[in-house]
Write a structure and sequence with these properties.
141 residues, DUF2948, mainly beta, globular, DUF2948 family protein, 5-stranded antiparallel beta sheet, single chain
């Protein structure tokens, strides 16, 4: 598969982005909250679920950015713990006063990042390297 580039402007769009980012792995150092630019961005090693469907387990370096961010809050993770490894489980959007709302990045272990947005503007883009991985993520119910 070629590199993926997705935009999300509503909850349904973000659900597609979230599905592609499920089980992405990143370090706290790979996240940046830029209040002056009203932007939150991160780079992660996402598991390529589309390739897994055809029997190939791969990860891809992927960048994600949210624009028009008014505030970022961190729960159960320390922004200064740069080497902490996070496993992204889901990205959700809760609309409060349309078009504004909150995006939550939900990580394993109960960690989360909550972004207060003027409106939802997100872009996900594969950046480069693709590599084989020995196994695919598994979830217990």
């Amino acid at each position: 598969m070629d590199t993926l580039k997705l935009a999300a402007l509503d909850r349904d769009d973000l659900a597609v982005v979230s599905a592609h980012l499920q089980d992405a792995v990143l370090k706290v150092a790979d996240m940046a909250w830029l209040p002056r630019e009203k932007r939150f961005a991160f780079v992660a090693n996402r598991f390529d679920w589309e390739s897994a469907a055809s029997g190939a387990n791969r990860r891809r370096r992927t960048g994600v950015r949210f624009d028009r961010v008014k505030r970022a809050q961190f729960s159960r993770l320390r922004p200064d713990d740069k080497e902490a490894v996070l496993n992204l489980l889901a990205v959700t959007f809760e609309e409060t006063d349309p078009p504004s709302g909150f995006v939550t990045l939900v990580f394993s272990g109960g960690a989360a990042v909550r972004l207060e947005l003027e409106c939802l503007e997100c872009e996900m883009r594969d950046l480069g390297p693709v590599w084989e991985t020995a196994s695919q993520p598994r979830h217990t119910d």
